[in-house]
Amino acid sequence: MRNSMNEYNTYTGKKIGIYKELAVVIVTAFTIAVLASLGTFIVCSHYGVLVDVTEDCSDYKRKYDIQVMGMVRELDSALSNAMDEISANELDDDKNLGDAMKYLLINGRLPFATEEVNNMNITITNRNGLVLWKKKLDTDSEDYRSKKVYVDIDALVVNSYDDCSPEYSFVYTKSIKKTLYYIIFETKVTPEYLYADMKLKVACICLGTVIFIICVILMTKKRIDYIRYLSDVVNLISKGNLDLQVDKRGHDEITNIAYSIDNMQHSIGRMMKEERENDRKNMELITNLSHDIKTPMTIITGYLDVVISHKYDSAEERDTYIKKAFQQVEKINGMIHKIFILARNEKPYGNESINDIESSKANKEKCNIAMMLKQDVSEFEGIALKQERNFVADITEKPVYAEVEIEQMREVFDNILMNSIKYSRKNTDIIVTLLEENDNILIKVSNMTDCIKKSDCERIFDKFYRADHARNSSISGNGLGLSIVKETVEGLGGSVLADYDSGLFTISIKLKKCNQNQDQEIR
After folding, report:
1. Do domains 56-194 and 360-512 have the same CATH topology?
2. Cα 446 to the chain's mean position, in Å?
3. DSSP SS3 for 319
4. Which of 127, 135, 222, 493 qualifies as a cystine partner to 180, CB 3.0-4.6 A?
5. What is the reported pTM?
6. Short-list 320, 331, 337, 322, CA closest to 297
7. What CATH number should be reported for the domain whose range is 360-512?
C-alpha cells in the first residue's frame, strides 16, 4: 500500500492532462489526413484521375469578334473609297466588291496586316454566295477564278453563333450601289481546356475524413484498451478478487483512476481482513466470556442452592456459603468493571468530538513516572513475598516526567505488576526497569514464566485472551488486564510490546517524555 502511494506521488509530478493528450492526437491525425488528401489531389490532378476535361472556344471567339469588328469598320471605309476610285478611273459601273479588294491589295492599301488577320481566311461573295474574291491560302486547292464557287452563307451565319464550334466565322453584310455583298472572316479556333475537378475534391475530402478517423482510432486504441482493462479489473474486484496487481500505464487522469482503483482494492482488502479479524475476536470474546462467567456463576448457584435448601449444619456454615457466593459476585463485578474501562478507552476512529479531545487534554497532568513506578512496586512487594517472588527495581533516581492521566497510569502499572506476580515462577525475581531513551521513557517488566509461549505474544493484548497454559492452570484471570494496558498506553500516545525469549517474558512500555513546568504542580 505504501509503495503504491509512493508511486502515485511520483506519478502526479509528471502527469499529462488527458485533454492535452487528446489535442495532440487530434492535431496529429488532422495533419496526416490533410497531407494525404493534398498529395492525392496533386497526383490525381496531374494524371487526370476523376477530372472532367472540356473544350471551351467562347473566349477565343469573343476575342476574334472584337478584332474583326474593328477590321470591318476600317475595311468598309477602304472598300467604299476603292469602289469610287475604280469607277472614276475606268468609267465602268460593272466593277464589284471583289475588284475593289483586289485594287486595295495591288496598291498596298489594305487597312490591316496583323498576324491574326493574316491567319484568317477572308472571302467576299455576292448575295447568292458566289465567291467574288478570296484570300489565297496555302491549303486552298479550289480555284474560284476558273470556275464558279459558292459558299453556304446560312451555315456560316449559324456557325458564328455556335460557341462550341472549333471554327470561327463572321459574316458582314456590305451594300454598294444597291448591290448586297457578304464579307466572310474564317479561321481555326484554339480551344481552352476546362478541368472540372469537383469529383476529385469530394473524393479527397472523403479520403481525408477516413484517414483522420483511422488515425484517431489507432492512436487512441491503447488508451481505449486500457479503459476496458480497468473496467475488467473493477468487475473482478466487485466479485471479491482483491489480490490483483493493477497495471499503471501513461500519465493522465485515466492513470489516476488506475491508482485510485489500486488503492481502493488494498483498502477494501485491509478492511475485510480487519473485519474478519474482528469477527474472530468477537467470537473468541464471547466464548471466553462465557467460560469465565460460567465458573463463578456455577459456584454461586451451588452455594445459594445449599442456603435455600437449608442443607447447612449451622448459621456459621450458612454465612460462609453466602460470603463465598459474594466473593464470586465480586469477581464478576471486577470483570464487568474492566470491560467498562475498555469501553471507555476505545473510541471509534474519527468519531471523537472536540469536547472529548479537550476533556482528554484537561485530564492529563505532568507526572513523575519514575516516582509513581517506585511507589507501585513498593505496594506490591508484600504480595510478591507472600507468593514467593521478589521485585528487583532498576529505576532512575532522576525525576522523569510524562503527560498522563494519573489514575489510568496507576491502573496500567497495577495490571502489569499483578500479572508478573501471578504468572512468574516461584522463587524468581521480577525485574522492573525505567530508562530514558532520547525523548522517550522506556519501562520494562520482566519475569520467568511457564505459562507463555512465543506465539502468545502476538495476541496477548487481545480482549479475553489467555494463553493455554494460563487458562488450564489454577491461576485466576479473565484476559482483560493487558487489553486495558494496551488501550490506555496507546490512548496516551505511547506504545506497548510483549516479548518472550527462553522463558523470560517482558512487557515494554514507551511513553513520550516531557520537561517539568515549574508553574505546575508535579505529582
Report:
1. no
2. 56
3. helix
4. 127
5. 0.43
6. 331
7. 3.30.565.10
What is the spatial distance between Cα 133 and Cα 140, in angstroms, rounded to a whole number? 13
- Which tens digits make up the pLDDT trace of 332-369? 787 677 666 656 655 443 344 444 445 555 578 888 99
412 near 481, Cβ under 8 Å? no
Distance from C-alpha of 300 to C-alpha of 476, rounded to nearest angstrom: 16
- Give the number of C-alpha atoms closer than 13 A to the C-alpha of residue 324, restricted to the C-beta side: 17
DSSP letter string, 143-156: -TTTS--B--HHHH
Q: What is the signed CA dihedral for 14, 17, 18, 20, rounded to 10 degrees?
A: -110
Q: Give domain limits for the chain.
A: 17-51+197-249, 56-194, 255-345, 360-512
The Cβ-side half-sphere exposure at 310, using a 13 Å CA radius, reads 0
Centre a 10 Å sphere on the Cβ of residue 61 and count the other Cβ atoms it contains: 22
- Are the CB atoms for 372 and 409 separated by under 8 Å? yes
What DSSP designation does 456 have? Answer: G
- In the structure grid, which three cell numbers stand for residue 356, read together? 472529548
Q: In whole angstroms, give the CA distance from residue 275 to residue 241.
A: 16
Fold that domain 56-194 belongs to in CATH: Beta-Lactamase (3.30.450)
Please state, in angstroms and as integers, the Cα–Cα distance from residue 492 to each residue in 290, 418, 483, 517, following that order: 31, 21, 14, 19
Type of residue found at 305: D
The three-class DSSP label of residue 474 is: coil
Q: What is the pLDDT of residues 466-523, one digit of tens each?
A: 555 544 444 555 566 777 788 888 888 899 988 888 888 898 999 998 876 544 444 4
Architecture of the domain made up of 255-345: Orthogonal Bundle (1.10)
Q: Are 328 and 300 in contact (CB under 8 A)?
A: yes
